[in-house]
Amino acid sequence: MDRTAYARRLRQKQTLAEKTLWALVRNRRLSGFKFMRQIAIDRYFADFICEAGKLIVELDGAAHEGREDYDERRTVTLEQLGYVVLRFNNERVLADPGGTADEILSALRSARP
């Protein structure tokens, strides 16, 4: 699999929740923290990542139903690589984008020494 092409395809087929969150965090809009999206880490693609804060934000929608075990293994692997993983339901992001951004910012600030 061409990982670059796959990541590009994921970015082009964003869900509404992903578009909403990306609008909040792109271009260092969240207190200057730089986020990237659909970045390959190990054998996974992180929805959103802030390398400076070692934070990965995953959005879970209908595609994640019934995949809880897979998602848990994925989270464990990413945490073993030194990342904090935050998971949000798509509906939460759409209903409360500001609250979602606040929670992400709180996690980033608490990770700082």
Automatic annotation (TrEMBL):
<dbReference type="InterPro" id="IPR047216">
    <property type="entry name" value="Endonuclease_DUF559_bact"/>
</dbReference>
<dbReference type="InterPro" id="IPR011335">
    <property type="entry name" value="Restrct_endonuc-II-like"/>
</dbReference>
<protein>
    <submittedName>
        <fullName>DUF559 domain-containing protein</fullName>
    </submittedName>
</protein>
<dbReference type="InterPro" id="IPR007569">
    <property type="entry name" value="DUF559"/>
</dbReference>
<dbReference type="Pfam" id="PF04480">
    <property type="entry name" value="DUF559"/>
</dbReference>
<feature type="domain" description="DUF559">
    <location>
        <begin position="2"/>
        <end position="108"/>
    </location>
</feature>
